[in-house]
Amino acid sequence: MPPKAPRKTTHNRASTQPAPKQDAPVQRAAGQNAPLPGHVLEPAPAEGTPTPASLAPQASGRRTAKPASTPRTRKPAPGTTAKPRAKAASPKALPAPQTALRDMTKVEVQQFLTDLSRAWPDAQTELHYTTPFTLLVAVVLSAQATDASVNRVTPALFAAAPTPQAMAALGDEQVGQLIRTIGLWRNKAKNVVELSRQLLAEHDGQIPHTREALEKLAGVGRKTANVVLNVAFNQPTVPVDTHVFRLANRSGLGRGRTVEAVEKKLEARIPLPMVRDSHHWLILQGRYVCKARKPECWRCTAEQSCLFPDKTPLPRPKPPRAAP
Q1: Where is this region: Disordered (predicted)?
Q2: Active site residue 318
Q3: Are the C-beta atoms of 186 and 176 separated by less than 8 Å?
């Protein structure tokens, strides 16, 4: 066998690596942190340690508030007694409610409506119309508008489109141009044209005689349907608009928080022979006499039978102006 080769010895790498160099001490400049002659160098205070300078009050441009002083109490003069302090004024009484304190009885309802009938013996709607269709259109246009403003635009509109066929053929834009002087004329033009198309498609161009069918037409709500049924078809309905709602609550004829609540009360309380005409009496009375801001009670024919507690007295005549 050949002789074995001599085994090589390995050196430890850690022993062969040079030792890390130590940072040389920092040489301070001559005279740095050196004490002055005759003084001893004191160690710097630790961070956060208060110093006499930090404990001293800092000067600022603001004035410091003085402590509040207790109010002085005046002593009464010799031989007199202290007067008691006046009591705080009580809050002002609330204004009288704009509603009656109770609902009328059936006898009072009869008397109240009889008094109103004397003021409006020939009451009827103030909207101008010739057919049930033109009445329906006029009532739709009167929403949030006065009857007078509607009557100014309907002659030209009904001359151009007196029937549902003509109104549907006229279109939104042309109808809008004819009624643009009233409020919300764009939406109303769309509703008038759309309800005309609905009448042609669903009712053969005729006006339906039921509230449910009328309310399905575009732009027709409960009040509009009741007006058409009352005026065009002589049905005993009580349309409740803003004037009727205000007058019914104010007088005690039928109080309620919603239009439907007032309507149900009026239909149940008004005698059947008076239902149809009472709608016109209430609207005209609320529009021209029992006004929203200040009712003119002194010229109301039903003042004695009205239950409103805060009736408006007759205004004093204005003094004549002095001659210049």
Answers
A1: 1-102
A2: no
A3: yes
